Amino acid sequence: MWRDRLTRGLALHLCLLLTFLCVCLHVYLELGERRGPPSPLTLGRPTQTSQVLLDSGARKLGAADPMERRVGAEDRAVKRRVSYVRTPKKDSVAGKTVGGEEPSTCCPPLRPNRKHARWHIELEPWASDSHSLEGEARRFLSYITSPQVFCGPPSPESPVVQGGQEGPEGRWAVCLDSRYSLAQRIHIQHCRVYSLGLGMEDKTLERSLVRAGCEVHCFDPSLRQAHLQESDMWLHRLSVDWRDPNPAIPAQRQHSNTKKLATILNDFGHRQVDVLKVDMESAEWKILENLVLEGVLSSVGQLLLEIHLHWAGFEVSGDDPSVVRYWFSLLKELERAHFRLFHYHSDPTKPRLFLHRNVLNATSAYTLGWVNTQWRS
């Protein structure tokens, strides 16, 4: 009798052992399938940081069985890898591809020509150990009055663009040298111009570029209509700022409709601007800083900039030597972005003021022309 009981007990234990082995084999096969080759949509393995997060999440599952915690971690790992896939927005208008090219199948960046955003500019070393205003002003004024490249005369077949280099109303000039692409772009009527201004300023250069065949957009917050076409120029009731409006502030409390240039380019579906003219009445320093930090300068062929020196400018702080050092550092950032000064003009009608005083007999306003030597449109 006891032998029969022993035999039945051993058989029962053997059945339980076989059942446990079958369950383990099933779990092992399931995990093997989960750890198989990734889906073709998967772009890569999770980063080390993601893996640490997965491991910490697995420890917080609270399951009694370690195998269940491992299964949960594997499930989240698969979901995390698939979540890396993103569909980029097309930089175009109404869903059209830019330049007639088909989009890449490997997730191209939204703006491949732009660098990653930065937090601050690199300040140049002081002009002298004394950190004096005269030393900083002398270096700055020498820099803005020393052209770095010579803009040769345009070829006979180049279009005639009247901006002028003499007189208070003809201080703007573009470079039509054959080494750079603006003349060729105008010739094929594939030229785009952005003019940023405040109030009723002179539009001689813009009208001349329109007659030459360029697409010209003027931004002025004083306009009565949101968008208006006048003399083949587009006028927009927009003011370019160094920051986008705060969404928490109601629209009726905002002083004007302001946006960053990068936002406007994205809204209009424009990737490149052949000529960017900026006359923002002392807001140019912070706007230029924003263009540098967000890498927008790589989308600009020529930059025509009027700078105002009678005071530090909007939201520019510090003592006078530090302000001039900041100005100089911003212009050196242009040089790092492959821009070279080809033209400067001092307005003789402006007062001789440099940070509220007469320093080296400098005028309070200068117009500078910069060309992107690596501009490829």
Automatic annotation (TrEMBL):
Region annotation (Disordered) maps to 90-109
Spell out the Pfam families in the cross-references.
Methyltransf_22
* Domain Methyltransferase as annotated: residue spans: 163-309
What name does the UniProt record give this protein?
Methyltransferase like 24
Q: Which organism is it from?
A: Salmo trutta
Encoding gene, per UniProt annotation? METTL24
